[in-house]
Amino acid sequence: MNPAPGPICETTRSWISPLLVAEQVKRSGTGPWIFLHSLGSHPCGARYSLLATNPKLTFESHASRISIKYPETGQSADWYGNPWRAMESLWDRFEQKDDSPWPSGALMGYWGYDLKHFSAPRSTRSAWRDLEVPDCWIGLFSSLAVFDQETQEIHLIATGINAEGDRNPSQAQREISWWNALLERVPTKQATSAAQPICHDKQSIQTRSNLNRSAWIQRIQQARNYIRAGDIYQLNLSHRIHTHCPWDPWDFTTKLFEISPAPYSGFLDCGNLQLGSSSPELFLVTDGQRIRSTPIKGTRPRGATPEQDQALEKELTQSEKERAELVMITDLIRNDLGRISEYGSIQTPDLLRLEKYAQVQHLVSTIEGQLRDEIHPLKALESCFPGGSITGAPKIRAMQIIEELEPIGRGPYTGSMGYLGLNGHSAWNILIRTALFHQQQVHFNTGAGIVYDSDPEMEYEETLGKAAGFLKTLTAMQGRGRARESEPGKFASW
Fold first, then answer.
1. Cβ proximity of 92 and 379 under 8 Å
2. 299 to 49, 89, 303, 313, 471: CA distances (angstroms)
3. Cα(486)–Cα(192) distance, rounded to whole angstroms?
4. Torsion angle, CA of 124/128/61/467, rounded to 10 degrees?
5. Which of 131, 218, 322, 402 gets the highest tally of CB atoms within 10 A of its CB?
6. Read out DSSP for 61-102?
7. By the 8 A CB rule, do 316 and 361 touch?
8. Residues of 153-185 as b/e, b for ≥16 C-beta within 10 angstroms?
9. Burial class of residue 326, CB neighbours in 10 A (0-12, 13-18, 19+)
10. Residue 174 lies in a domain
11. Residue 486 lies in a domain
12. Which residues of the chain have pLDDT under 70?
């Protein structure tokens, strides 16, 4: 039996901003598309931006109802079951090993928080699902463009794979030709529009939260009661801000990228909903059998002056509460990775590292391990899902309490956006600092980690600090009516 043909890879040194190419994909109208974008100079080593469109099939789940659609034929299949097992059957159909340093085709999209009901034992589902959005949406993308900010190269990768898992070299060459034709249509200069004054009147933007200040603080007191009783040590609590959204989701997201750049940003257009993420947190990345996670805990705002910024940095790095909280979550993730890694392979090369962003600064750790031979990337994702940094410790009991204290379901929030490469190269962020666009509304969850000695007022203010980039984007969009394109070349890669 002959092995399936490998992917076709073509590299060009003619650099074009990935933001401009993504804009051209949007204009091409080829159906669902995804763009993963980040900071090339970030200390985590993020370097590449990935762009894909025209999926061969799409997979979505609503609780146990699963739907696969085939855009090329218009056919679909629906059934009930465990979404993780259904995804595993797709992975088995399409998996192929090769030596490419990038994903050779991929299952790309989002894995929402509520998939926990199928990956975590004793998980409960009691929060009201007020948004009719899938728990999970992924597409099979047979080709993609990879932008290397470090070398200023664009790599075009095509597999010619179809919805049955067969690979056709002629189809792969046609995919390469499609990308080259698209690159030729990208304007050589950024589109400009007449400058309009930005409205700074915050009262003109009517945002609401599902929990006001007093209601959210009451939830903190309830969480502290659980901590006092010994049920948990730490809990992540969130509330959701929402408002009417007359703007194009892509325009809004590029403005969010500009105002609040982050190393694991992304945009996904599924048709009925869009996600625009400016996430600073990597959940998991796999490269061969190596796996890595970089949890975040501990937050302070950026200062208005260098002196104030330095004072806030000192306050964060010397806070016993914040340090203990990150160490606790680091241990939780070490345990999660330890269950699927070779004995003795877990290492923590970074602990309590400071990272600074436009609106906030965080403490971060890095945990690495060597996956056992029988653990493939999708199984690793399921085993660790969702991330401990956005649930609490112990994880299962924390998730049960979240269902009780948060009155509405989280949806995609605190799940993951990313890709499962068909050759095993995979990466997922934590979906925080993320705008969900659905039915002319934009929703933005924000949360904080609660421990027994948390100050409720400070924790609430922390959630507003994390939402600052989103709120500033709303103000900018309100003033302009429509966001201008972000400055090309300003961001880089996953």
1. no
2. 27, 40, 12, 9, 18
3. 10
4. -100
5. 402
6. EETTEEEEEETTTTEEEEEES-HHHHHHHHHHHH------SS
7. yes
8. ebbbbbbbbbbebebbeebbeebbebbeebbee
9. buried
10. yes
11. no
12. 1-4, 39-45, 121-125, 189-205, 480-494
Q: Rg for the chain (alpha carbons), in Å? A: 22
Which pair of structure tokens corresponds to residue 335?
């345990």
Confirm whether 488 is domain-assigned: no
SS3 content of the chain, % helix, strand, coil (to 5): 30, 30, 35
Residue 183 backbone dihedrals phi, psi, to 5 degrees = -60, -35
The count of other CB atoms within 10 Å of the CB of residue 30 is: 14
Query: pTM of the prediction?
Result: 0.91
Q: What range does the domain containing 300 cover?
A: 8-187+198-480
* Residues paired with 454 in a beta bridge: none
The pLDDT tens digits of the residues spanning 100-134 come to: 888 989 999 999 999 999 987 666 667 778 899 99
Query: Phi and psi dihedrals of 86, rounded to 5?
Result: -65, -40
Q: Is 489 among the domain residues?
A: no
What pLDDT shows up at residue 316? Answer: 86
Nearest CA among 412, 486, 422, 337 for reference residue 144: 422
**pLDDT at position 198, please?**
35
* Residue given tokens 């309100």 in the structure block: 478
Structure tokens at 302: 């950026």
The CA distance from 343 to 340, in Å, is 9
- DSSP string across 259-316: HS--TEEEEEE-SS-EEEEEE--EEEEEETTEEEEE-EEEEEEPPSSHHHHHHHHHHH
Task: Retrieve residue 393's tokens.
Answer: 């410790």
Closest CA to 138 of 98, 178, 94: 94
The alpha carbon dihedral of 494, 40, 431, 182 has a sign of negative
Please state, in angstroms and rounded to a whole number, the distance separating the CA atoms of residues 234 and 237: 10
Is there a contact between 402 and 237 (Cβ–Cβ < 8 Å)? yes
Tokens of residue 244, six digits: 């009417």
Give the span between the Cα atoms of 435 and 480, in whole angstroms: 19
CB 59 within 8 A of CB 137: yes
Question: What total of structural domains would you count in the chain?
Answer: 1
Torsion of CA 268, 399, 383, 462, to 10 degrees: 50
Amino acid occupying residue 486: S
Q: The domain that contains 337 carries what CATH number?
A: 3.60.120.10
